[in-house]
Write a structure and sequence with these properties.
single chain, mainly beta, two-stranded antiparallel ribbon, 19 strands, 15% helix
Length: 402
């Protein structure tokens, strides 16, 4: 609509007195254009928008969504943790160049996480940035079904995963959309018996050959780099453009001397708009490829996984584990109103042990539908329902899957 108005203004300035003599025709053109745009726009529900607008204007909503100061956060835990919430505090310093956030979360299943995250931006005339964080989490009921794509749903066990992690990511942005960066960090990990009474503990069901690292954990020093190109129009709720990222990391075993490995992650998203941007085809692909040297192994709790709210949505959380994974996704998104978006989706993915087994022929698949509630900055909440041959799953999350 803005480009149409700009074109009309240019035409006005270039025609001079002729426009004055033909103002009736111009009015007709403008009226026809407005009617056309009204037809292309999504139907709007004034009552619903007034209700949501009232909520967004309330002190409670501002407290929950405020980007600065003290607030209450929701979600941001792993799938299967249950409903989670906790306090957070954000502060912007150095004339907007430094942003710090501290947070605590606990869930209905007694999962806990907390940490401090920071971002130093607008360095080197806006061409450099530095992200850093220190986080700790304790997940007492992590599911494990055994290794590989042939694992069975009935093989469910659980284990406790505790991790303390520090990370630092310096980055350069030489041109718009392109980011080059380094990855560095330290991870201290502990694995123990799970606490779910309805499932057997993983160390009682699976051997070290089936679940490497289950009897001994180690700490890691990590290092690597990434390259990313992002030309999406709105990162919080994209309707066109794309985002592509390649990341390579070395995980160095500091204690056991048995679990060092390398990992390459490739991720690509593309958004194709039509009907005046009110409809979007969203496409996503991701693969994680790992490698070892000198008879090293990858601990099962460090392996890529599939199953959950953001990948295979028709399967239980963390349904599949192995050294490598591949995922493809497609969504049809329809903006039903300014605050509500509907979606149809399909997911396909698999895990495998060796790079040579990479293919898109034998995928675990699902399909489903979702509803998303949006604000000025993007999707605030979404409710997705996915169906697979293992049943169906319902997910409540606070962001888009990709």
């Amino acid at each position: 609509m803005q480009w149409n108005k700009l074109g009309l203004a240019i035409a006005v300035l270039s025609t001079g007195p002729v426009w004055a003599q033909d103002s009736t025709r111009t009015d007709e053109i403008e009226s026809a254009r407005a009617k056309k745009e009204q037809k292309l726009s999504s139907p709007r529900d004034p009552g619903l928008e007034r209700a949501i607008g009232g909520i967004q204007g309330s002190w409670a909503y501002r407290f929950l969504t405020s980007t600065d100061g003290l607030g209450l956060g929701f979600g941001e835990m792993i799938p299967g943790a249950g409903f989670s919430t906790g306090p957070r505090y954000s502060k912007t310093l150095l004339d907007g160049r430094l942003r710090l956030t501290g947070y605590l979360r606990s869930s209905t299943k007694r999962y806990y996480t907390g940490g401090i995250q920071g971002s130093l931006t607008h360095l080197w005339n806006g061409h450099a940035a530095l992200d850093f964080s220190a986080d700790h989490f304790d997940y007492p009921q992590m599911p494990y079904y055994g290794p590989g794509s042939e694992s069975r749903k009935t093989g469910r066990s659980d284990y406790r995963l505790e991790k303390t992690e520090t990370q630092i990511h310096p980055a350069l942005r030489p041109v718009k959309g392109l980011t080059l960066g380094l990855l560095g960090g330290f991870q201290a990990i502990n694995v123990g018996p799970g606490t779910a009474s309805e499932y057997i503990s993983s160390d009682h069901q699976y051997t070290p050959a089936q679940a490497p690292g289950i009897e001994q954990q180690t700490d890691y020093l990590t290092g690597g780099g990434f390259v990313q190109f992002d030309w999406r129009d709105r990162p919080g709720d994209p309707t066109e453009g794309g985002k592509y990222r390649a990341e390579y990391t070395k995980f160095s075993d500091l204690d056991a001397g048995r679990y060092s490995f390398y990992q390459l992650n490739l991720d690509a998203s593309e958004y194709i708009p039509f009907f005046n941007g009110k409809r979007v085809i969203a496409l996503h692909g991701r693969t994680s490829l790992s490698d070892t040297r000198n008879s090293q192994q990858i601990p099962f709790y460090m392996q890529p996984t599939l199953g959950g709210a953001d990948d295979l949505r028709g399967y239980r959380p963390f349904r599949f584990y192995d050294d490598n994974s591949v995922l493809v996704q497609a969504e049809y998104r329809w903006e039903a109103s300014g605050v509500v978006e509907l979606a149809l989706f399909a997911d396909g993915g698999n895990v495998f042990h060796d790079w040579s087994q990479w293919n898109l022929r034998h995928l675990e698949t699902d399909y489903g539908f979702g509803i998303r509630f949006k604000g000025d900055t993007g999707v605030h909440f979404r409710l997705d329902t996915g169906f697979s041959h293992e049943g169906f799953q319902i997910w409540f999350r606070v962001n888009n899957p990709f």
